[in-house]
Amino acid sequence: MLKNSKDFSINSAAGIFFVFLGILLVGWLANGPSNQELLANYAKSKDLWDLMVANKGFAWWTPNYLGGAPTAPLAGTGLTMFWLVLGGAFTDPILGGKVLGFLSLALSGVLMAAFVRRLTGDQRAGWIAAFLYSLGPQAALRLAGNEHMPVVFCMPYPPLIGWALLDIATRNSGRGTVILSLAVAAMSLTFNKITAVFAPVALGLAIWLHFRYPHKTMPLLKGCLIAAGIFLFLGILPQLPGLREAGRMTLFSTDPLLGWQSSFSIKA
Asked: What are the boundaries of each domain within the chain?
Protein backbone atom coordinates (compact mmCIF):
# COMPACT_ATOMS: atom_id res chain seq x y z
CA MET A 1 0.00 0.00 0.00
CA LEU A 2 2.83 2.37 0.89
CA LYS A 3 4.61 1.51 -2.33
CA ASN A 4 1.50 2.25 -4.38
CA SER A 5 1.04 5.51 -2.50
CA LYS A 6 4.64 6.48 -3.22
CA ASP A 7 4.30 5.63 -6.91
CA PHE A 8 1.09 7.66 -7.05
CA SER A 9 2.76 10.69 -5.51
CA ILE A 10 5.67 10.46 -7.95
CA ASN A 11 3.36 10.09 -10.94
CA SER A 12 1.23 12.96 -9.66
CA ALA A 13 4.30 15.20 -9.34
CA ALA A 14 5.20 14.49 -12.96
CA GLY A 15 1.59 15.00 -14.04
CA ILE A 16 1.26 18.30 -12.18
CA PHE A 17 4.50 19.49 -13.75
CA PHE A 18 3.26 18.90 -17.30
CA VAL A 19 -0.28 20.16 -16.61
CA PHE A 20 1.05 23.38 -15.11
CA LEU A 21 3.43 23.81 -18.03
CA GLY A 22 0.53 23.29 -20.45
CA ILE A 23 -1.60 25.91 -18.67
CA LEU A 24 1.23 28.43 -18.94
CA LEU A 25 1.64 27.60 -22.63
CA VAL A 26 -2.05 28.17 -23.38
CA GLY A 27 -2.00 31.46 -21.48
CA TRP A 28 1.07 32.71 -23.33
CA LEU A 29 -0.21 31.64 -26.74
CA ALA A 30 -3.27 33.81 -26.15
CA ASN A 31 -1.02 36.87 -26.12
CA GLY A 32 -0.04 38.41 -29.42
CA PRO A 33 3.38 39.63 -30.57
CA SER A 34 5.37 41.63 -28.03
CA ASN A 35 8.20 44.15 -28.23
CA GLN A 36 10.67 41.66 -26.76
CA GLU A 37 13.20 39.41 -28.50
CA LEU A 38 11.25 36.55 -30.11
CA LEU A 39 10.36 38.41 -33.31
CA ALA A 40 13.84 39.92 -33.59
CA ASN A 41 15.49 36.53 -33.15
CA TYR A 42 13.19 34.97 -35.72
CA ALA A 43 13.76 37.79 -38.23
CA LYS A 44 17.53 37.39 -38.01
CA SER A 45 17.22 33.61 -38.34
CA LYS A 46 14.87 33.80 -41.32
CA ASP A 47 17.09 36.35 -43.03
CA LEU A 48 20.11 34.05 -42.79
CA TRP A 49 18.07 31.05 -43.95
CA ASP A 50 16.75 32.94 -46.99
CA LEU A 51 20.28 34.03 -47.91
CA MET A 52 21.54 30.45 -47.64
CA VAL A 53 18.73 29.20 -49.86
CA ALA A 54 19.41 31.95 -52.41
CA ASN A 55 23.16 31.28 -52.41
CA LYS A 56 22.75 27.49 -52.27
CA GLY A 57 25.27 27.45 -49.45
CA PHE A 58 26.34 29.39 -46.38
CA ALA A 59 26.00 33.17 -46.67
CA TRP A 60 28.93 34.99 -45.08
CA TRP A 61 27.37 38.45 -45.35
CA THR A 62 23.89 39.91 -44.93
CA PRO A 63 22.94 43.34 -46.26
CA ASN A 64 19.75 43.37 -44.18
CA TYR A 65 21.14 43.68 -40.64
CA LEU A 66 22.84 46.78 -39.23
CA GLY A 67 23.30 48.10 -42.76
CA GLY A 68 25.38 45.05 -43.65
CA ALA A 69 27.13 42.63 -41.33
CA PRO A 70 29.11 39.36 -41.40
CA THR A 71 27.10 36.28 -40.48
CA ALA A 72 29.97 34.11 -39.21
CA PRO A 73 29.58 35.30 -35.57
CA LEU A 74 26.01 33.94 -35.63
CA ALA A 75 27.47 30.41 -35.35
CA GLY A 76 27.39 30.97 -31.59
CA THR A 77 23.59 30.88 -31.75
CA GLY A 78 23.28 28.63 -34.81
CA LEU A 79 21.09 25.96 -33.22
CA THR A 80 18.77 28.59 -31.76
CA MET A 81 18.31 30.02 -35.24
CA PHE A 82 17.65 26.54 -36.62
CA TRP A 83 14.86 25.90 -34.10
CA LEU A 84 13.26 29.29 -34.75
CA VAL A 85 13.28 28.78 -38.52
CA LEU A 86 11.85 25.29 -38.02
CA GLY A 87 9.10 26.67 -35.79
CA GLY A 88 8.16 29.25 -38.39
CA ALA A 89 8.23 26.77 -41.28
CA PHE A 90 5.04 24.95 -40.28
CA THR A 91 3.03 27.64 -38.53
CA ASP A 92 3.06 31.28 -37.52
CA PRO A 93 6.61 32.14 -36.34
CA ILE A 94 5.32 33.58 -33.06
CA LEU A 95 3.27 30.46 -32.35
CA GLY A 96 6.07 28.14 -33.46
CA GLY A 97 8.68 29.92 -31.35
CA LYS A 98 6.51 29.84 -28.25
CA VAL A 99 5.66 26.15 -28.64
CA LEU A 100 9.30 25.20 -29.17
CA GLY A 101 10.29 27.31 -26.17
CA PHE A 102 7.86 25.45 -23.95
CA LEU A 103 9.00 22.11 -25.38
CA SER A 104 12.53 23.11 -24.39
CA LEU A 105 11.31 23.89 -20.86
CA ALA A 106 9.52 20.54 -20.66
CA LEU A 107 12.63 18.67 -21.83
CA SER A 108 14.82 20.58 -19.38
CA GLY A 109 12.50 19.55 -16.54
CA VAL A 110 12.57 15.88 -17.55
CA LEU A 111 16.37 15.92 -17.81
CA MET A 112 16.74 17.70 -14.47
CA ALA A 113 14.45 15.13 -12.85
CA ALA A 114 16.56 12.32 -14.33
CA PHE A 115 19.82 13.91 -13.19
CA VAL A 116 18.73 14.62 -9.61
CA ARG A 117 17.08 11.19 -9.32
CA ARG A 118 20.34 9.60 -10.46
CA LEU A 119 22.34 11.77 -8.08
CA THR A 120 20.18 11.31 -4.97
CA GLY A 121 18.27 8.10 -5.65
CA ASP A 122 15.06 9.97 -4.80
CA GLN A 123 12.46 10.41 -7.56
CA ARG A 124 10.52 12.97 -5.56
CA ALA A 125 13.61 15.12 -5.26
CA GLY A 126 14.05 14.82 -9.01
CA TRP A 127 10.61 16.25 -9.79
CA ILE A 128 10.97 18.99 -7.17
CA ALA A 129 14.20 19.99 -8.91
CA ALA A 130 12.35 19.91 -12.25
CA PHE A 131 9.74 22.34 -10.89
CA LEU A 132 12.35 24.72 -9.51
CA TYR A 133 14.53 24.59 -12.62
CA SER A 134 11.97 24.76 -15.42
CA LEU A 135 9.10 26.66 -13.81
CA GLY A 136 10.98 29.04 -11.53
CA PRO A 137 11.05 32.84 -11.90
CA GLN A 138 14.27 32.92 -13.92
CA ALA A 139 12.95 30.52 -16.56
CA ALA A 140 9.61 32.33 -16.71
CA LEU A 141 11.32 35.70 -17.13
CA ARG A 142 13.60 34.44 -19.89
CA LEU A 143 10.80 32.76 -21.86
CA ALA A 144 7.64 34.81 -21.35
CA GLY A 145 9.22 38.06 -20.16
CA ASN A 146 12.30 38.87 -22.23
CA GLU A 147 11.64 36.09 -24.78
CA HIS A 148 15.36 35.37 -24.65
CA MET A 149 15.13 32.23 -26.77
CA PRO A 150 18.87 31.34 -26.89
CA VAL A 151 18.86 31.00 -23.10
CA VAL A 152 15.63 28.97 -23.13
CA PHE A 153 16.96 26.59 -25.77
CA CYS A 154 20.13 26.13 -23.67
CA MET A 155 18.21 24.98 -20.60
CA PRO A 156 18.06 21.23 -21.40
CA TYR A 157 21.84 20.96 -21.63
CA PRO A 158 23.06 21.68 -18.04
CA PRO A 159 21.18 18.74 -16.45
CA LEU A 160 22.24 16.54 -19.37
CA ILE A 161 25.86 17.55 -18.83
CA GLY A 162 25.50 16.81 -15.12
CA TRP A 163 23.96 13.41 -15.88
CA ALA A 164 26.79 12.59 -18.29
CA LEU A 165 29.49 13.54 -15.76
CA LEU A 166 27.79 11.39 -13.14
CA ASP A 167 27.55 8.50 -15.60
CA ILE A 168 31.27 8.74 -16.35
CA ALA A 169 32.18 8.91 -12.65
CA THR A 170 29.99 6.01 -11.54
CA ARG A 171 30.16 3.66 -14.52
CA ASN A 172 33.28 4.69 -16.47
CA SER A 173 30.82 4.97 -19.32
CA GLY A 174 31.74 5.62 -22.93
CA ARG A 175 28.10 6.56 -23.40
CA GLY A 176 28.50 9.32 -20.82
CA THR A 177 31.59 10.62 -22.61
CA VAL A 178 29.78 10.85 -25.94
CA ILE A 179 26.71 12.49 -24.38
CA LEU A 180 28.91 14.98 -22.51
CA SER A 181 30.75 16.03 -25.65
CA LEU A 182 27.58 16.32 -27.74
CA ALA A 183 25.73 18.25 -25.02
CA VAL A 184 28.54 20.78 -24.53
CA ALA A 185 28.97 21.22 -28.29
CA ALA A 186 25.23 21.67 -28.82
CA MET A 187 24.99 24.14 -25.95
CA SER A 188 27.89 26.20 -27.32
CA LEU A 189 26.21 26.32 -30.74
CA THR A 190 22.91 27.29 -29.11
CA PHE A 191 24.34 30.21 -27.12
CA ASN A 192 28.09 30.29 -26.59
CA LYS A 193 27.97 32.99 -23.90
CA ILE A 194 25.71 30.93 -21.62
CA THR A 195 28.01 27.94 -22.18
CA ALA A 196 30.93 30.00 -20.92
CA VAL A 197 28.89 31.11 -17.90
CA PHE A 198 27.92 27.50 -17.11
CA ALA A 199 31.46 26.12 -17.53
CA PRO A 200 32.56 26.88 -13.91
CA VAL A 201 29.45 25.08 -12.60
CA ALA A 202 30.26 21.99 -14.67
CA LEU A 203 33.88 22.16 -13.50
CA GLY A 204 32.72 22.41 -9.89
CA LEU A 205 30.52 19.34 -10.33
CA ALA A 206 33.43 17.41 -11.84
CA ILE A 207 35.65 18.36 -8.88
CA TRP A 208 32.91 17.30 -6.44
CA LEU A 209 32.57 13.96 -8.23
CA HIS A 210 36.34 13.50 -7.90
CA PHE A 211 36.07 13.78 -4.11
CA ARG A 212 32.81 11.82 -3.98
CA TYR A 213 34.24 8.91 -5.98
CA PRO A 214 38.02 9.11 -5.42
CA HIS A 215 38.64 5.67 -6.94
CA LYS A 216 37.02 6.89 -10.19
CA THR A 217 39.28 9.92 -10.67
CA MET A 218 41.23 8.54 -13.62
CA PRO A 219 38.16 7.31 -15.55
CA LEU A 220 36.50 10.69 -14.90
CA LEU A 221 39.57 12.59 -16.09
CA LYS A 222 39.95 10.36 -19.15
CA GLY A 223 36.28 10.72 -20.07
CA CYS A 224 36.39 14.51 -19.71
CA LEU A 225 39.54 14.79 -21.84
CA ILE A 226 38.04 12.65 -24.61
CA ALA A 227 34.83 14.69 -24.46
CA ALA A 228 36.89 17.91 -24.64
CA GLY A 229 38.60 16.65 -27.80
CA ILE A 230 35.28 15.87 -29.46
CA PHE A 231 33.91 19.24 -28.32
CA LEU A 232 36.82 21.10 -29.91
CA PHE A 233 35.95 19.52 -33.25
CA LEU A 234 32.15 19.81 -33.04
CA GLY A 235 31.72 22.98 -30.98
CA ILE A 236 34.78 25.20 -31.42
CA LEU A 237 35.76 24.55 -35.04
CA PRO A 238 32.47 25.86 -36.52
CA GLN A 239 32.86 29.07 -34.50
CA LEU A 240 36.44 29.93 -35.50
CA PRO A 241 35.42 32.10 -38.49
CA GLY A 242 33.02 33.97 -36.23
CA LEU A 243 35.71 34.59 -33.62
CA ARG A 244 37.95 36.01 -36.33
CA GLU A 245 35.21 38.33 -37.59
CA ALA A 246 34.20 39.39 -34.07
CA GLY A 247 37.74 40.61 -33.45
CA ARG A 248 37.34 43.07 -36.32
CA MET A 249 33.89 44.37 -35.39
CA THR A 250 33.14 47.63 -33.62
CA LEU A 251 30.25 46.73 -31.36
CA PHE A 252 29.63 50.09 -29.70
CA SER A 253 30.91 53.62 -30.02
CA THR A 254 30.77 55.91 -27.00
CA ASP A 255 31.01 59.17 -28.97
CA PRO A 256 27.24 59.69 -29.52
CA LEU A 257 26.53 58.86 -25.90
CA LEU A 258 29.17 61.27 -24.62
CA GLY A 259 27.78 64.00 -26.87
CA TRP A 260 24.26 63.40 -25.61
CA GLN A 261 25.44 63.53 -22.01
CA SER A 262 27.28 66.78 -22.63
CA SER A 263 24.26 68.42 -24.27
CA PHE A 264 21.34 67.21 -22.19
CA SER A 265 22.49 66.08 -18.76
CA ILE A 266 21.81 68.30 -15.76
CA LYS A 267 24.97 69.97 -14.54
CA ALA A 268 25.42 71.09 -10.97
From this structure: 34-248
